[in-house]
């Protein structure tokens, strides 16, 4: 191998580790928060609202440990000045931001992979690029492996869309639980921006994938 290829592979390894760490963090964080905090809290708010509408005894819904789950966290500086409603209402924005950063890193890996492929083609004994520079969605993978990688990227996207839908249903209730005032338009704007960023990022990585697949075919 030449020196330039060695440097590319070293850089690729570093970038790949960063990508895998962020991917694991995003998937685990999104899954745990959604099922342990977000969905139970939104269910609690829905049950309480239904109870009040039906004019029933709602003492079991007057208070929930979920509402103090974050405000009760104590650090060396004191209690965390954030409520569960704040974390829940900005949860989709955080996941969208994480997905946007993740896809940007994957796009950088695609660019490095193309540079590595060009260098490998110039070797007397070309190497299998999929072994030395693997990708989450690899043009040389089987269709099932490509689908698995695609679903992995789309999982946070689907969670964000579903979370926004639930939040918009209970947005008035959530807004009233915040310690500050924001108009409803503010939340519509940040959710719209989050969706646009995710869609743009996924489309961009789709173009990178098909461009890489086209180059792979041309080099065969």
Provide structural commentary.
With 220 residues, this protein is mainly α. The protein is 74% helix and 2% strand. The chain has one domain. It contains six helices and two strands. A two-stranded antiparallel ribbon has the order 1-2. A hairpin with a 2-residue loop joins strand 1 and strand 2. The mean pLDDT is 84.
Helix-strand blueprint:
Layout lengths: L2 H51 L20 E2 L2 E2 L4 H38 L7 H4 L10 H27 L1 H6 L7 H36 L1
> What separation lies between the terminal Cα atoms?
20 Å
Chain-averaged pLDDT: 84
Number of strand elements: 2
Count structural domains: 1
Summarize the entry for a quick read.
The chain has 220 residues and is mainly alpha-helical.
Which keywords apply here?
mainly alpha; two-stranded antiparallel ribbon; 220 residues
């Amino acid at each position: 191998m030449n020196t330039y290829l060695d440097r590319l592979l070293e850089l690729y390894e570093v970038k790949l580790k960063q990508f895998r760490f962020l991917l694991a963090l995003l998937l685990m964080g999104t899954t745990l928060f959604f099922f342990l905090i977000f969905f139970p809290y939104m269910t609690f708010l829905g049950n309480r609202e239904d109870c009040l509408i039906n004019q029933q005894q709602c003492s079991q819904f007057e208070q929930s440990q979920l509402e103090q789950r974050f405000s009760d966290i104590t650090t060396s500086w004191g209690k965390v000045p954030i409520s569960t409603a704040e974390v829940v209402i900005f949860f989709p924005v955080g996941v969208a931001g994480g997905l946007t950063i993740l896809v940007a890193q994957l796009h950088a890996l695609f660019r490095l992979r193309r540079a590595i492929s060009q260098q490998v083609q110039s070797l007397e004994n070309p190497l299998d690029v999929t072994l030395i520079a693997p990708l989450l969605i690899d043009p040389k993978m089987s269709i099932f492996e490509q689908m698995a990688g695609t679903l992995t990227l789309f999982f946070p996207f689907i969670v964000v869309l579903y979370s926004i839908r639930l939040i918009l249903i209970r947005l008035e209730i959530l807004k009233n639980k915040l310690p500050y005032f924001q108009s409803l338009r503010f939340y519509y704007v940040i959710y719209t921006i989050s969706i646009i960023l995710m869609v743009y990022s996924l489309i961009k990585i789709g173009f990178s994938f098909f461009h890489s697949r086209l180059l792979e075919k041309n080099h065969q």
